[in-house]
């Protein structure tokens, strides 16, 4: 019994230290009904354990606080301020199911001591309570990890993918990247034996079955995908051939355009705006963004896209004409 009492007492003291609390020997001895010498021995045992575990942690006496505190020679875990930022971004993304989001936030909060944990929860607790996931509410953490493993091992995967019209189709693909953009995770892949050489984009929540195959793949240097560059070209998560896009922008500031097109560059400054050039895969996604800018945007190149935009605008105008 005495041995178990000692273990329980040491664990209590260690939990206090881990939570950023100060151990005063006199107070601890009174609370735990033991002598101050026993408390000192317990602290020494914890100190020895920390030294043997190479944790980077140590116990020191703080003269100002008049007690023992846990210090770290190297940073451990995630700083509280970063836990708060990550939690806020996660909750705003709505990317995870309700269960996965709660588990993820709890894991992040566990990186902080009790005091900081309470502070962070003050800012995220209400959002977590009223969290509303996307309509699909699909668990995604495991599938993201499985795809990441397939990319790392360079193994083909077999998927059954459900399109927007709810038709399902089987594909064997070469996975090359995972991206997150505006609420959704996406798999960037090349379809095996396809006549098309551009990457195809699959939304992860629409993958109904995923199986890693034993068949390895290799990537030719010309097809090698760098996620950083890919991210700059696939801003709208639509696939297609690589297109060089030019348009005039007549907004108050060019900043939102360059934020939307990370590889965009200003070709020329105009009297009433800027001429911008960017590279995108396909035009379906960027057309929706271009139209959302109203008369602030005028596509100049490629010519066929400019004509397509004119046709779309004419159709919009026709829809608003009185009957």
State the secondary-structure class: alpha+beta
Distance between the termini: 90 Å
Radius of gyration: 28 Å
CATH architecture of the largest domain: Roll
User: Oligomeric form of this entry?
Assistant: single chain
* Poorly predicted ranges: none
Order of helices and strands: HHHEEHHHHEEEEEHEHEEHEH
Counted by DSSP, the helix tally is 11
Give the overall shape. elongated
> What is the CATH first-level class name of the largest domain?
Mainly Beta
Count the beta strands: 11
Helix proportion: 40-55%
Descriptive overview:
- By secondary structure, the protein is α+β, with helices and mostly antiparallel strands.
- It folds into four domains: 71 residues, Arc Repressor Mutant, subunit A (Orthogonal Bundle), CATH 1.10.10; 50 residues, no CATH class; 85 residues, Roll (SH3 type barrels); 79 residues, Alpha-Beta Plaits (2-Layer Sandwich), CATH 3.30.70.
- Helix content is 42%, strand content 26%.
- The protein has eleven helices and eleven strands.
- A five-stranded antiparallel sheet has the order 6-5-4-3-7. A four-stranded antiparallel sheet has the order 9-10-8-11, covered by helices on one side. Strands 1-2 form a two-stranded antiparallel ribbon.
- Strand 1 and strand 2 form a beta hairpin.
- The protein is elongated.
């Amino acid at each position: 019994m005495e041995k178990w009492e000692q273990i329980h007492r040491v664990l209590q003291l260690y939990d206090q230290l881990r939570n950023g609390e100060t151990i005063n020997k006199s107070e601890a001895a009174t609370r735990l009904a033991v002598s101050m010498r026993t408390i000192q021995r317990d602290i020494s045992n914890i100190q020895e354990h920390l030294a043997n575990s190479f944790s980077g942690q140590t116990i020191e006496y703080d003269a100002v606080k008049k007690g023992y505190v846990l210090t770290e020679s190297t940073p451990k875990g995630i700083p509280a301020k970063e836990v708060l930022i990550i939690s806020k971004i996660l909750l705003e993304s709505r990317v995870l199911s309700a269960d996965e989001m709660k588990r993820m936030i709890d894991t992040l909060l566990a990186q902080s001591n009790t005091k900081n944990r309470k502070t962070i929860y003050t800012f995220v607790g209400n959002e977590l309570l009223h969290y509303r996931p996307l309509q699909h509410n699909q668990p995604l953490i495991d599938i993201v990890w499985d795809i990441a493993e397939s990319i790392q091992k360079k193994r083909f995967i077999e998927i059954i993918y459900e399109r927007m019209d709810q038709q399902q189709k089987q594909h064997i693909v070469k996975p090359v990247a995972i991206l997150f953009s505006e609420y959704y995770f996406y798999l960037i892949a090349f379809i095996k034996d396809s006549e098309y050489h551009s990457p195809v984009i699959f939304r992860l929540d629409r993958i109904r079955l995923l199986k890693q195959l034993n068949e390895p793949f290799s990537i030719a240097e010309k097809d090698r995908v760098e996620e950083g560059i890919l991210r700059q070209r696939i801003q709208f998560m639509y696939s297609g051939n690589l297109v060089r896009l030019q348009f005039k922008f007549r907004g108050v500031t060019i900043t939102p355009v360059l934020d939307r097109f990370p590889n965009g560059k200003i070709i020329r400054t105009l009297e009433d705006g800027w001429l911008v050039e960017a590279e995108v895969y396909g035009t379906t996604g960027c057309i929706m963004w271009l139209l959302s800018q109203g008369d602030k945007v005028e596509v100049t190149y490629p010519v066929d896209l400019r004509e397509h935009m004119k046709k779309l605008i004419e159709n919009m105008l026709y829809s608003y004409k009185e009957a």
